[in-house]
Amino acid sequence: MANTYRFGTVEVRPAERQLLVEGRPAALGARAFDVLLALIEHRDRVLGKNELLDMVWPGLVVEENNLQVQVSTLRKLLGAGAVATIPGRGYRFTLVPEGSDSAPSCPLPARKHNLPAPLNSFIGRESEIAEVKALLGGSRLVTLTSVGGTGKTRLALQVVGEVLEDFPDGVWLVELASLSDERRAAQVVAFVLDVTEEPGKPVIEALVKSVRDKRVLLVLDNCEHLLQGCAEVAKRLLQAGPHLRILATSREPLHVPGEAVYRVPAMATPQAIRLFVDRARAAVGTFESTPANAQSIVDICRRLDGIPLAIELAAARVRALSVDKIATRLDDRFKLLTGGDPTAMPRQQTLRASIEWSYELLSAPERMLLRRLAVFSGGWTLEAAEAIAGGGEVEQSASAVEILANLVEKSLVAVDSRGERYHLLETVREYALEQLRESGEEDAVRDRHLAFFMDFASKARPELVGPQQASWLARLDQERENLLSAHAWCARATEGQEMGLRLVATLKQYWLRRGLLGLAYGVMLEALARAPGRSRPRCRTLFDAGQIGFFMGLYGEARSHLEESIAIAREVGEKLVAGSALQPLGMACLGQGDLAAARSHLEEALVRARELEDPRNIAAAVNARAQLHRVEREFDAAEPLFEHVIDLARELEDRESIAIGQLNLAMTSIERGRGERARDLLREAIAIVEATASRPAGQSVLEVCAGLAGQCDEWEKAARFYGAAEAVAALTSLHRDPADDAFLAPWVERARKSLGEARFEAAVGEGRARSFEESLREARAWLAEETAVNS
Length: 791
Hints:
The structure is a single chain. By secondary structure, this protein is an alpha/beta fold. Among the domains are: 5-93, Arc Repressor Mutant, subunit A; 126-263, P-loop containing nucleotide triphosphate hydrolases (Rossmann fold, 3-Layer(aba) Sandwich), CATH 3.40.50.300; 269-353; 362-440, Arc Repressor Mutant, subunit A, CATH 1.10.10; 654-790, Serine Threonine Protein Phosphatase 5, Tetratricopeptide repeat, CATH 1.25.40. It is built from 37 helices and 14 strands. Strand 13 (414-415) and strand 14 form a beta hairpin. The protein starts with a strand and ends with a helix.
């Protein structure tokens, strides 16, 4: 360090920490003097702003604005050109000390951008890049929004890197994440653009003059915590001149007129897999995706919602854990997914910090609503949000609807394309659930959730056998996960034992019509295990479990449940259940080969149903009696009974029961050699199945088609329909009842003998490989061809 530096009329005395201008001491603070010394001593190169901060404020966290203030002070004393700003890089001292052997090298030519060089490869996002570029071509302000960790900044940098040539006056990245005062937003932009404020005027005025006639693209990165300040700067700059464009990243829009908002989606699974493999290979050079770990990689990417930050953090864990172990530990994802880039902002180093950053920016009512929304599984409607998550402090400042809209704006809640259904990314939901548990109100919110969906199921139940069946089935499909969550909460809820029994009983028709027999049976057994005793609700659920157990071919278990149900029903005076349970009990006995017991129970079931004058029970009892006739090959006795069942189902407007009756009648017709009638019945049944999407009825359609094809000597088609039916059965757990099995088994055996084992298995495999919808279309087309041939 020299004793004295002289620059014309300026003299710097380091030992005395004094600056003289024209021989007089200048008023200069200690920090400004330290900045001056650092610049002079390193005048042969550009000093980065972070480097300068470390030199002048060692060990302290200081906003960049402090550095800008000191540089501005030096320029006023030494001349505006004494300290040059190299955009995006830092500062350089330009004056030459007297007595220096050589002048410093010329300042580096200013670049046309300050974009950082990427440290790793950019994976996927081809369509997103194209869409953002198209928006940027038509809008002067484009804001990329999404929840934290989805890669908004990286996408923005990739986009602007491809449009550099469109902006001859430069593309400049303005990083706002470290700024805490939104009033300083304009100063940070000025620093990046090397714009000096004019004395006595706000810096925005100098910025407006600077960009007025320039073709510049600004990237305002991480605006969510400075929304008002960023919006004001963006609006003023866009008004300054027609050629400036702004690409912003934020967790919510800036709400500036003319703004185009692009919601950055989660990565599609194939792209997410590519990202995981690329980053895992960077962590462990020998890493490869193999058949052994491929499914675990897919599971990781899906469970992490395609969030790039989460996927990169998970991939880094391959240094210490196998992919399978990473997948199994994602239930505690916030502890697992840590240890990101230590030089990044803290909120970018862990998954928890990324979500927490967004949560902390919310108002108190927004936080409360978000954590309450975490009780929903699989999404929710607006009505459900108001009933379950609204009320109390949530609505003190605004309605639940308004606050929900705010959460959508802030990218924490997603809404479907029709604006009718909302959901949380699973990662956001996990964090919100933690907050709900810590808040102490989880029990109350879950109680409201249970009550709401109990009421919803009760309203749906009568609609499942009427003209609105298809639309209500679709609504129940959407709420399936919420219904299962409500069922699980019954283990802890007040009066949860009885409510659990009521809930699973109320949903029985839904489980049946959707072919979710295994799921239904499981939840019923759980509800029964929680509620011992001999109550009316237990009696009803035992009946339901027994009936579904029969449908699944669990004849012994079904018989046990049904016998207990009937015994309790007779004790408590439940005549309807006592009579209804006789019908599946008789069928379970038939499945066990106990024909005498089956006949006795089924005859009594029909008597009891007629005594109760219940058309639905009468239809079920008549159908069961007809099935017994089929097993005993008494087709003349069975046929009029099935016709009676169809008539009763039409009176009830129960479309699925109409289809089942038609299929039973079609099987009887085939057994009697009346193929043409069977075709007509099948066509009608297929129309109902396609309208209601009923897999159980669809499975039966395919089985009947297999028999009809066999009767027509079309053995490959018979084998293919059989294979398609078996594929559906694997999904529904629906076991053919004894009568249906007695019909189909001989045709399957004849197909096997006619084709030979190899051809038969090939045809069956072809049928198994087809989707349910494809198989139904083939059946419909084949029936139309057969009708044309025979007409």
